[in-house]
Amino acid sequence: MDGNAVDIPVLTVRNVRKSFGKGAAKKDVIADLSLTVGEGEFVSIVGPSGSGKTTLFQMIGGLTLPDEGDILIGGKRINGQRGNVSYMPQQASLLPWRTVAGNVELALQIAGASRKEAAELTSEWLGKIGLASYGDAYPGVLSGGMQQRVSFLRALLSPQRLMLLDEPFGALDALTRLSMQRWLLSIWEANRRSVLLVTHSIEEALLLSDRIIVLSQSPAVVLDEFVVPYGRPRSDKLWTDPEFNRYKERVYNVLQESLSKGTGDSHV
Amino acid sequence: MDGNAVDIPVLTVRNVRKSFGKGAAKKDVIADLSLTVGEGEFVSIVGPSGSGKTTLFQMIGGLTLPDEGDILIGGKRINGQRGNVSYMPQQASLLPWRTVAGNVELALQIAGASRKEAAELTSEWLGKIGLASYGDAYPGVLSGGMQQRVSFLRALLSPQRLMLLDEPFGALDALTRLSMQRWLLSIWEANRRSVLLVTHSIEEALLLSDRIIVLSQSPAVVLDEFVVPYGRPRSDKLWTDPEFNRYKERVYNVLQESLSKGTGDSHV
Amino acid sequence: EEQQPDSGTEQALTKVKVVLDWTPNTNHTGLYVARDKGFFAEHGLDVEIIQPGQDGADKMVASGAAEFGVSYQESITMARIADVPLVSVAAVIQHNTSGFASPVAKGIDSPEKFEGKTYGGWGAPVEEAVIASLMQEKGADVGKVNMLSIGDTDFFTAVQRDIDFAWIYYAWTGIEAELRGEKLNMIYLTDYSDKLDYYTPVLATSEKMIADKPEIVKAFVAGASEGYEYAIEHPDDAAEVLIKAEPDLNADLVRASQKWLADKYQDDAPRWGEQKLEVWTNYADWMYEHGLLEGKLEAEKAFTNDFLPDKE
Amino acid sequence: MGNNRIPWRKIWPPAAVLAALLAAWQIAVSAFGTAEYILPSPLSIAEEGINVGPRLLEHTLATVGLMLPGFAGGAAAGFLLAALIHFIPGARSGLYPLLVLSQNVPVIALGPLLTLWLGYGVLPKLILIWLVCFFPVSVALLSGLNDTDPKLRNYMEMIGTSRWTMFWRLELPHAIAHLFSGLKIAASYSVLTAVVAEWIGSEKGLGHFMMLSSSGFQTARVFAAVFLIVILSLAMFGLVVLAERICVRWKPDRKGE
Amino acid sequence: MGNNRIPWRKIWPPAAVLAALLAAWQIAVSAFGTAEYILPSPLSIAEEGINVGPRLLEHTLATVGLMLPGFAGGAAAGFLLAALIHFIPGARSGLYPLLVLSQNVPVIALGPLLTLWLGYGVLPKLILIWLVCFFPVSVALLSGLNDTDPKLRNYMEMIGTSRWTMFWRLELPHAIAHLFSGLKIAASYSVLTAVVAEWIGSEKGLGHFMMLSSSGFQTARVFAAVFLIVILSLAMFGLVVLAERICVRWKPDRKGE
Ligand SMILES: Nc1ncnc2c1ncn2[C@@H]1O[C@H](COP(=O)(O)OP(=O)(O)OP(=O)(O)O)[C@@H](O)[C@H]1O
Ligand SMILES: Nc1ncnc2c1ncn2[C@@H]1O[C@H](COP(=O)(O)OP(=O)(O)OP(=O)(O)O)[C@@H](O)[C@H]1O
Ligand SMILES: [Mg+2]
Ligand SMILES: [Mg+2]
C-alpha cells in the first residue's frame, strides 16, 4: 500500500476513528482510516460530500483529537498538536481587515518568518501569480476566484513539511483552474513538497497526484488506492489523452458503487 | 443570434455597460453586453474569474443599475427592479439561525407562497433531494456540499420566471455534482423553466445548457455563442462521448485565446 | 489663602479641613471670612474649606478624613445614638430659622390649615413628627395632611405642581422669594414649640480631635468665631468675601441673605456659638418620644462650649 | 448541550469569587478595626439585614415594581428607536446625536422639568429609567443592524426581499447578539437607576431606605440595601442571559468557555 | 469615499434636527409663558452663558481635565479586563458577574469609602469615572471576542497560530466594531459621569457650577452648563467615531447610509 516504506513517511494516519455527538446522537464519521504521504509525494483524497475529509484534516492539524488511532508527522506522534502543517481551506478565509499582501505575510510570520523575509517573499510571489497590483487591496474587493488564489499562495509559501489543501480550486473558473493546476504542477515538480489534497474533481486528482485515495461515505474507510500511471513532468494537456477518460471512469465507478451500497440518505 | 425571435424572450440584456469607481479609479467591468434567454431555455455563461458575471447577475436582480443599456424580463424593462428572479449564489448564503427547512420556506414565502404551501413543498422536496433528516438541523452542522444543495433547492422551488444560478455546483464533490446535474436535467427537461447559469466548468455547461455564452476578461463582451448540439433528453454519460472532448476543447480555446490577447494582469 | 495676612504668625501653619454640609451659603460666611481675612492664620491654622459629597460631612469628620465639619443638631443626635463620635463645638445660628413655607395664595398661615393640604418633603419620619407637633398645638390632625416626597426638587418648582407647602430655611429660600417679590406665608417651628428650637447648623468635630488636639479645636473655633463676628458687624463686606470666594453663587441672594442673617447668628446669646444643654435635651427627648431615636442621648457629651473664646 | 449541566458549571465560579471577596472583606474589617459607620463587616450587614428584614423586603418589592416596567419600557423604546432610525433613510445621522444628547441631561436639570410636567407620581421616575435603559439597547442594536453579512444581504436582495422582511428575517436575527449585549448593559443599570430615580422623591423603595439609613448613620442598613441591589442586578442580568440562550439556539457550541 | 465630503453630509442632519428642537423650545417657552426659573428659553440661556462666559470656560476646562483621563483610564481598564477575562480560561464565568456588580454599588455607599481611603483629591473622582466607563467597553469587547468567524478561526488554528497572535490578529480586529460600540457608550457617559463625580466634592468643574447655580435658583446657568455638557459629550462621541473611521478602513462602503 505504501510506496516509500523504507523512508519515514511525512504523514502517517494509523487506524484513526472519529465520531461526533454522544449517546443516541452519536455519529461515526471516520471508521478506521489509515493512509500515508511520503516525502515529496502528492496524494489526493476523493470522497463524497460529508465523508469526513474536512474532519480528517482537522485531526491532522491538531484541532480535534481522533477517538482512536495515531497521527504521525515525520514519525512523531502529533495527535492534537498544532502548527505542523500549512493549510488552504475550502473557503478563502482571508482576514478582511488585512490587505492581500498582509494576509500572506501574516501566515508566513506565524510559521516563523521574520517581517522582512515575509514581505519580500510575498511581494515576489504576488507578482508571479499575477496579483501584484492587488497587494494593497483588501480581500473584500477581490472576486471569489482571486481570493482563493491568494489563499493558495499563503499555504504554498509557508515552510511546514506538509501542505493540506482542502478543495483548493473549487471556486476558480475552469480556465484559471487549469492554469493554476499547471502552474502548481510546475512548481511542485521543481520542489517536491509533500501534499495532501482533497478534491472533488477526479480530473484534478489524476492530473496532479501520485496516488488517489478514494473514501467511502461516512463512516469513512479507504475504498481504493489508485496509483496514477502518468510520469513526471506531466503534460497539461493530459485530459485530451483518450486513456485519461478511462482512468476517470474507473475512479468514478469505485465511488458510484460505494454509494449504491451506502445508506443513500444524502444522495438521490 | 437569438433562436426564439418571434416569442418575447424571458430575459433580454441589451447593450449593457457597467463600471465601478470614479475618475482615475474607474474600472470598466462590462463593456456592451447583450444576451437573451428564451422561454424555457437553458443558457450558460462561461468566463474567466473577475469578468463581471456576478456583476451582471446583480444588474438582472435589480441590485445595481447598469450605466447604460436595458434589462428586460418578459419584454418589460426592469432596470433596478427587484423580485423578478430566483437566485442561487456562489456561496450557500443560508441564514444560520433558521433550520434547513426554515431557510427554504422563507425563500418561498418571500416569493409569495403561503406558510402552509411553503412548508409542504419544502418537506416534500427535501425528501426528494435526500435531505429529509436534515430539515430541522441548522445549516452550521451541514457540510459545504449539503449547504449548497439546500441553496439550490431554495432557488428551484421559487416561482419566478427566471432562475439565476451563480456557479451553483462549484462546492459539490465530483460525484454529487454529476448526480445533481443529472437530476437537475431531469427536472428541468420535465418543466422547462428559463435558466441563466454561470459556471466555471465547460463540461457542466455542455451537459446542461442549450446555449453557452463565452465572456471575455473584463471589460466583458460576448466572445462567442455556442449552441450545444446535443438533443434532449440528454444522457448523463455524455462525457464519455469522444465528440464531447472536442466541443470542450473548442470552448476552451476561445477562452484561452481571449486571455492571451487581454491585459493578462490576473493570469499567469 | 487668597490674602495672607501680614500680621500672621510666620511659623508653619497647621493644615486642617472643614467640610461643609451643603453647597456654600450664608450659613458658612463666617468660615470664609475667617479664612480669607486671615483669622484662622492668626490662630496658626491653614484651613481648607471642602464642599461635601452627597453624604455630607459627618462621617468624614467622625472618621478623621476631615478635622471639622458643618452639621446640625438632629444629625449629631442621631450620629451619637449610632455610636458615631461627633461633638458640636459651636452653634452657627442661635435659633432655628427653618419653617413651613407656602405661597400666600394658598392661605396656609397657621398649622391647622395644613389639613387637607399636600406637604412636599424628603419622606423622612422626622418631618411628619414635626408637622404633627405643630398641628397638635392647634388641635389639628396630621392624618389629614397629604405627604409627598419631592426629593431634590426646589421649593419654587414644587409649589407649581401638586405641593402646597414645604420646609425651608428662610435665610436662603425665603429671601429668594422676597427678591422675586413672591409673598410667602411662613410658619416657623420656634413659634409653636420650644422643643423644636434646635441648633441648625453647628460646627462639629470628633471626640478624638477633642481628646488629642484640643489646641487645634480651640484655634479653629476661635477663628470661626472671629469670622462670624465680623459677619455680624459687617454683613455687606462679609457677603462680598463669600461672593469673591465662590463667584458662582447667586450674588444678590447672598447679599440679601447676609443682611437678614446678620443679627440671627448670635441673637440673644451671650456670645456667638453658645449652646445650651436644654436645647439639646429638649430636642433629643422630643425625638425619642416620637420614635425617631432608638436610644437616649447623653446630651452633655453631644456638645461643648469649652472651645468658644472667652468674652472679654 | 446538556441543559442541566450548564447552570452549575456557570454558577460556582462567580459564587466562589464572591465568597472569597466577602471573606477578605470580613477579615480586613476586623484586622484594621474599621468603624462600623464607615464600612460594616459582611456579618454585621447580614445581621442588620435580617433585623429589618420585613421592611427591607417591602422596599425591595417597591424597587422591583419600578425597575421591571422601567427596564422593559426602556428596552422596548430602545428597540423601537433603533428600528425606526434603521428604517428611515438619513435618520441615523440625524437622530444618533440626539440619543447621545439624551444621556447627557443631568437629573439636576431634568428632575424639576419632569416633576413640573408630570407631577410626583411614578411616571417621572419611569421616564428616568427609560432614559437610561433605552440607550445601550439602541446603540447596540443599531451597530448590529449595520453589520449584516454582505453575502446574505446580497442573496436576500436578489430574490426581492422587502425592506420589512429583510429587517425581521435577516438584519434583526443577525443583530441579536448585539441586541443582547445592549440588553445586558441596560439590565445591569436598571436596578441602580431605579434606586437613583427613587431619590428624586419616593416614599418607599431601596433608594428611599438607603437615604434615610444613611442620614441616620445606619451604614449597615445602607450596605444591606447595596447587597440587595447587587443581587437584583445579577438576577436581571441572569434573566437576560437566559433569554439570550433561549433566543440564540442556533449558535454552534463553543469549545473552551 | 471622498473623505472631504463625508463630514458635511454627516453634520448637517443632526444640526438641522437640533436647530429645529431649539426653535420649538424657544417658541414653546414664549407661548406658554413658562417661568424663567423652571425652564428658561434657549435665548436667555445663551445670554446668561455669555455673561458668565469666562468662568464657565474655566469650569468646562476643569471638567474636561477630569473627563479625559477618566474616559481614557476607564476604556483602558475595560479593554485590559476584557482581554484578561478572555485569556484566562474560566475567568469569564467567574468575573463577569463581578463586572455587573461593580455597576451596582451606589455612590452613596461608595463615595464615603473612596474619600476615606483616597482623600479629597482627584483620585476618588477618577475612580468613579473609570468605574462607569470601563463597563460598556468590557462587555462589548467580550461579546465581540466571543463572536469570531469560525471559518477564520479554523484556518488560524490549522496553521498553528499562537493564542496571543490569535488575539491580536483575529479576535481583536474582528471585535473592533463591538469595541467601538462600547467606546461610544462610554464616551457618551464620560462627561456626565465627570459632572456627577464633581458632585461628590469639588471646587471647580461644571458639576460644581451646576450645583451652586441650582442651589442659587439660577436655572439659566444650570441649563447653560447642560448645553456645555451636551456639546462635550457629542465631541467625545465624535472623537470615538473618528477613531473608528481611522481604525476600520477595510469595511466596504455601504449603500444608503
Ligand atoms: N463539530 C461537529 N459536530 C457534529 N457533527 C459534525 C461536526 N463536524 C462535522 N460533522 C459531521 O461530520 C460529517 C463529515 O463532515 P466533513 O465536513 O468532514 O465532510 P467533508 O468530507 O469535508 O464534506 P465536503 O466534501 O462537503 O466538504 C458530516 O456529516 C457533518 O455533519
Ligand atoms: N462594488 C464594487 N466596487 C468596485 N469593484 C467591483 C465591485 N464589485 C465588483 N467589482 C470588480 O468587478 C470585477 C468583476 O467582479 P465579479 O464579481 O462580477 O466577477 P465574476 O465574473 O463573478 O468572478 P468569479 O468568477 O471569480 O466569481 C472584479 O474585478 C471586481 O474587482
Ligand atoms: Mg469539507
Ligand atoms: Mg462571481
From TrEMBL, chains A, B:
For this UniProt record, the keywords arranged alphabetically read as follows: ATP-binding, Nucleotide-binding, Transport
The protein's name: ABC transporter ATP-binding protein
MF annotations from Gene Ontology? ATP binding
Q: Could you tell me which species this protein originates from?
A: Paenibacillus thailandensis
Name the InterPro entries on file: AAA+_ATPase, ABC_transporter-like_ATP-bd, ABC_transporter-like_CS, ABC_transporter_ATP-bind, P-loop_NTPase
| Listed SUPFAM superfamilies | P-loop containing nucleoside triphosphate hydrolases
Q: Which Pfam families match?
A: ABC_tran (PF00005)
Q: Where in this chain does the record put each ABC transporter domain?
A: 11-242
Which PANTHER family does its entry note? ABC TRANSPORTER ATP-BINDING PROTEIN (PTHR42788:SF2), TAURINE IMPORT ATP-BINDING PROTEIN-RELATED (PTHR42788)
Top-level taxonomy: Bacteria, Bacillati, Bacillota, Bacilli, Bacillales
Gene3D superfamilies hit by this protein: P-loop containing nucleotide triphosphate hydrolases
TrEMBL record, chains D, E:
Q: Where is the ABC transmembrane type-1 domain?
A: 60-240
Write down the membrane topology: Multi-pass membrane protein
* Keyword Transmembrane helix among UniProt keywords: yes
- InterPro entries from the entry? MetI-like, MetI-like_sf
Q: Name one Pfam family in it.
A: BPD_transp_1
Alphabetical keyword list: Cell membrane, Membrane, Transmembrane, Transmembrane helix, Transport
Indicate where this protein resides in the cell.
Cell membrane
Q: What Gene3D superfamilies does the entry give?
A: MetI-like
Query: At the top level of its lineage, which domain of life is listed?
Result: Bacteria
Q: Where are the transmembrane segments?
A: 66-88, 95-120, 126-145, 176-200, 220-242
Give the record's family classification: Belongs to the binding-protein-dependent transport system permease family.
- This protein is called what? ABC transporter permease
Q: Which organism is it from?
A: Paenibacillus thailandensis
